[in-house]
Amino acid sequence: MTNLQERGHLLTEQINPDSQNLDELDAQEIVELFNREDQKAVTAVAGAKLALARTIEETAARLGRGGRLFYVGAGTSGRLGVLDAAECPPTFCTPPELVQGIIAGGASALLKSSEEKEDRREDGEAIIREYGIGSLDVVIGITAGGTTPYVHGALSAAKGEGALTVMMACVPEEQVPADVDINIRLLTGPEILAGSTRLKAGTATKLALNIISTGTMVKLGKTYGNRMVDVAVTNSKLRDRAIRILTDLTDLSRDLASDLLERSGKRVKLALLMHWTGVDQTTGEALLQQHQGNLRVAVHSYKQHKN
Questions:
Q1: 180-183: long-range contacts at Cβ-Cβ below 8 A with a sequence spacing of 24 or more?
Q2: 29, 249, 256, 267: which could form a disulfide with 25 (CB 3.0–4.6 Å)?
Q3: How far is CA 28 from the centre of its chain?
Q4: Active-site residue among 13, 37, 118, 191?
Q5: How far is 215 from 57, CA to CA, in rounded Å?
Q6: Which domain covers residue 169, as residue numbers?
Q7: What CA–CA distance (Å, rounded) separates 123 from 252?
Q8: What is the count of structural domains for the chain?
Q9: pLDDT tens, residue by residue, 117-144
Q10: Which tens digits make up the pLDDT trace of 25-71?
């Protein structure tokens, strides 16, 4: 690992020549500078597309066999991981334990800076044991500058347990190598505010996490086309979305779609299966379970069997 005293040589710590007069810019110039620089975050994600695709494939395979996905990080990186994990249950109706975010310093670090906790490699190792992480699980270590001891400790311990290990960083591998299964390097370059990796690096990290979690859920059958058919109907906004999905994908009126949603136990995927096949709720549940929750496969299988 790069010596901590050499951080100034890291890509994320270098000085951005395009923002050296930052404090002399007016507000519009600042916005224009940020807009130009933020476009580099999208380019950085494109540069890591093969590693991202492999992460999706291998994560979906393990979660499909009963594994879990863990994001591990400190500071901004840790907060982004916790955020992405927290968004999975309402979006895909997943149990909270399926995708989890772990941040150095624990839950209090989400609201109050605990950056000193990131230097404790042994805490990263211990958290892997605490969560009982094993060979079916996936651990994605997130560290913009690549050197965070807490993350390296967690990845090393996870690898020792046979988990799939993924490193997500914004520095090249030659600057900070890591003994992991998959390396995702998001090369966003020097920040507008030197060393402030909550900027471009944070943006690229959030984009990459969006891709990984959404792509994994698609592979697990949590969507139908581009619809959130596993959305949790927990408030009026989500109920309205559920009804709109049903009316868009069927020939039902809003009232009939609302009735179907109730008969399915407020489960959009099951409601669609019931409508398209004519089966009752109990039969539909069994059919989905038989096909690992994949709506398209379940409907196709039922219709083939009927014919």
A1: 180/141, 180/155, 181/58, 182/51, 182/54, 182/55, 182/58, 183/51
A2: 29
A3: 33
A4: 118
A5: 8
A6: 4-219
A7: 54
A8: 2
A9: 788 999 999 999 999 999 999 999 999 9
A10: 999 999 999 999 999 999 999 999 999 999 999 999 999 999 999 99
pTM: 0.91
Amino acid at 272: L
The CA distances from residue 95 to 69, 200, 213, 241, in Å, are 12, 31, 14, 21
Alpha-carbon distance of 273 to 278, in angstroms, equals 8
With contact defined as beta carbons under 8 Å apart, do 124 and 133 qualify? no
Q: Which of 13, 24, 32, 87 is catalytic?
A: 87
pLDDT at 20: 95
- Whether the CB-CB separation of 258 and 241 falls below 8 Å is answered with no
- Whose tokens are 């050197």? That residue is 147
Question: Catalytic: 118?
Answer: yes
**What pLDDT digit, counting tens, does each position of 59-95 carry?**
999 999 999 999 999 999 999 999 999 999 999 999 9
Asked if residue 229 is part of any domain, the answer here is no
- If asked whether residues 143 and 12 sit together in one domain, one would say yes
- Statement to judge: residues 96 and 158 lie in one domain: yes
Residue 5 per-residue DSSP state = G
Neighbours of 91 (CB within 10 A): 18
- Give yes or no: residues 84 and 167 share one domain: yes
User: Would you say residue 224 lies in a domain?
Assistant: no
